[in-house]
Amino acid sequence: MKALLSKQVGGPETLVLEDLPSPEPGKGFAVVSVKACGVNYPDVLIIEDKYQFKPARPFSPGGEIAGVVKAVGEGVTNVKVGDRVLGNTGWGGMAEELALEAGRLQKIPDTMPFDEAAAFIMTYGTSYHALKERAKIKAGESLLVLGAAGGVGLAAVELGKAMGARVIAAASSQEKVDLAMKHGAESGVVYPPGPFDRDGQKALAEMFKQACGPNGVDVIYDGVGGDYAEPAFRSIAWEGRYLVVGFPAGIPKIPLNLPLLKGADIVGVFWGAAVSKDPKQHQENVRELFDLHSAGKIKPFVSERFPLARAGEAITHLASRKAMGKVVVTMD
Q1: N or C: which terminus of the chain has fewer CB atoms within 10 Å of its end residue's CB?
Q2: Residue 255: is the preceding peptide bond cis (ω within 30°)?
Q3: Measuring CA to CA, how many Å separate 175 from each of 149, 186, 323?
Q4: Distance CA 197, CA 217 (A)
Q5: Does the pTM exceed 0.70?
């Protein structure tokens, strides 16, 4: 079987496609014939050793997959050979076959295509955990989503709408804002490219305040970071919740007098750790997400598909921050 491997620290250009022996399922594991693999920002970081987890090399990037169970090991009862499944892998997904702990696999509805299934669990899982468990968002509250046309951002827009929030989409182009509005945002704001000097940050803060209204916004979903964070925070409402999701624009510095003055919370969102620490809650969330998908309230927007041989290009494209929705690598 073929796999895209990271054998040295570096960017997507360092990845190599090689033939490897097919894996065997150990106790509690299942082997999946991978049909599609979602591309996410952690894939950019993990091959450069900049992610929270640093797997031993060689390894394949790819943190979420969809496919068909090929074999199961001793003690596996939740899936069987032939089941259509998705899985959150952390890494290893950009390969034709993958051995994975069976508990990390979920059966998918027959109506869900593999490319959508591979674009589902990390983005919707992260955003649902963020809004439901970390922000505890309520119907009628307002939600500002930064990076609203990206994978997690677009998922947050759809979920915010489904959960009864008034969603404001913020993105770097009108095309991206328009996409977010098609997926449930009520209004939007186009922010300029950074970095910003102090005057630029003040102008951006005013832009966010105008978009959010005089009372501020109840929840801010920040999957961008960098120089956008502080200006966005200045638009938060009294007792608002600021969700720290990701940093493609860099790790921000927020003056701590701001949460004090607004009585606001800065809340970390680390979905991968939450899944491992509370697997029962994760399973409940996945069931609820499948229900929302079946009801037509959420649907992954796969903008581009790359074959495995061009998976490095897929990661490069995602790193450019020009991608909208989800990028998927397909094995067929």
Answers
A1: C
A2: no
A3: 9, 15, 11
A4: 24
A5: yes
